[in-house]
Design goal:
With 377 residues, the chain is mainly beta. 3% of the residues lie in helices and 49% in strands. Strand 1 and strand 2 form a beta hairpin.
């Protein structure tokens, strides 16, 4: 159960490491229907406030904050929300005058990336996108945070995921809403199909459609066959020293499976010295999770090169990503798990922020974690 502390008419809680939640507005005496999520000691944050003239009076029962027709509550980890999340639930007791729910938003240090329908190219690459991710937004740290080992772990730099709205009536009939985030005008809107509202049995729940996941990994995945190497590309501009790599960490989904890490240099399409790890068994079958792939003999990523951080499996597996036009992945579909070789058939594509990163130490410097970031072509 999520434990809140209260100050004036604002409720505060810490549902996950590095995540803080505020319900209400700590700067205001009166209660406003607003939720604010802060991450990494408030380096980044996101708040959304329902635009309404109706004055709200909050109450708390167990771990839910409620007004007459609004609920705020934590979501546990599940297949739908792998790392949990937070729900801003608006109840429509009768047919509304408008089919658009409007929120004012404020953000700090974040980038919102729309996740649309998969393209034909995505599908050819083995990409799969769940229905609740189509029309959603992946939310990333805007920039290249430095990750110090033993301190904050930014992983792939993902802060939150705002899911596609799913609106339900009293008879459990449901429809998808259309989510739109306009950071230039500080607005978030959810458009509910008018036909659904005309035919619905009231009350209608989840009308706000505002479900924010705590996920740190991508929400779509590549289905990868045995002997295929998939990777994310790190820009050479980020490799500012020689990096001693101790492990790769990837967001994966598979049954009983073994992986080998494989780091290749993009320009030459060759495996770097000691770039193949030993075999590592999947640690959590049939669930999305972060999988460590350790190196007993550490490879060195050389200053100024563009490494491809990837893995290869001894059976089918999934590697997670978000669509993002500024990021890149590389693959070799004719490699070998038993004897990984230089990716001479390397192909690459823009638009994929792959959820994989390397833990490393800078030679003769402090320890860091290198996150995947912008590639270049």
């Amino acid at each position: 159960m999520l434990k809140y502390t209260k100050k004036n008419n604002t409720y505060m809680a810490t549902p996950k490491k590095d995540i803080e939640v505020e319900v209400g507005d700590i700067k205001q005496k009166d209660f406003y229907p607003q939720v604010k999520l802060k991450k990494w000691d408030n380096e980044v944050n996101f708040s959304a406030r329902l635009i309404t003239d109706v004055k709200q009076k909050p109450s708390k029962k167990e771990d839910t904050i409620s007004t007459d027709n609004i609920r705020f509550y934590n979501l546990d980890d599940s297949d739908e929300f792998p790392e949990g999340g937070y729900e801003f639930d608006v109840l429509l007791k009768s047919k509304p005058d408008t089919n658009i729910m409007t929120f004012s938003i404020q953000t700090k240090g974040l980038r919102f990336v729309y996740q649309g329908e998969l393209t034909e190219e995505d599908i050819k690459l083995g990409a799969v996108r769940p229905d609740n991710i189509i029309g959603s937004y992946a939310v990333y740290y805007d920039g290249n945070p430095i990750n110090v080992e033993g301190g904050k772990e930014y992983k792939a730099g993902k802060a939150f995921h705002i899911y596609r709205p799913k609106i339900k009536d009293a008879n459990n009939n449901w429809t998808w809403g259309e989510l739109s985030i306009d950071t230039a005008n500080n607005l978030l809107t959810v458009t509910i199909p008018q036909e659904f509202l005309d035919m619905a049995t009231y009350p209608v729940s989840h009308a706000a459609g505002l479900t924010v996941g705590y996920t740190t990994a991508g929400a779509s995945n590549f289905g990868i066959s045995v002997n295929r190497w998939y990777s994310g590309v790190v820009s050479s501009a980020l490799v500012t020293a020689n990096f001693d790599v101790s492990k790769l960490t990837a967001s994966v989904f598979a049954g009983p499976r073994n992986y080998k890490g494989m780091i290749a240099e993009f320009d030459s399409a060759t495996i770097i010295t000691n770039g193949i790890s030993g075999a590592v068994a999947d640690s959590q079958n049939w669930a999305q999770h972060w999988q460590d792939i350790a190196y007993s003999v550490h490879p060195i990523i050389v200053n100024g090169t563009a490494p491809c951080l990837g893995a290869i499996g001894d059976g089918d597996w999934g590697l997670y990503f978000d669509s993002d036009v500024s990021y890149y992945f590389a693959a070799d579909t004719s490699n070998s798990y038993a004897s990984p070789a230089d990716p001479t058939d390397l192909s690459y594509s823009a638009g994929y922020h792959v959820s994989i990163y390397a833990t490393y130490t800078v030679v003769v410097s402090e320890s860091h974690i290198m996150t995947l970031n912008k590639g270049w072509w």
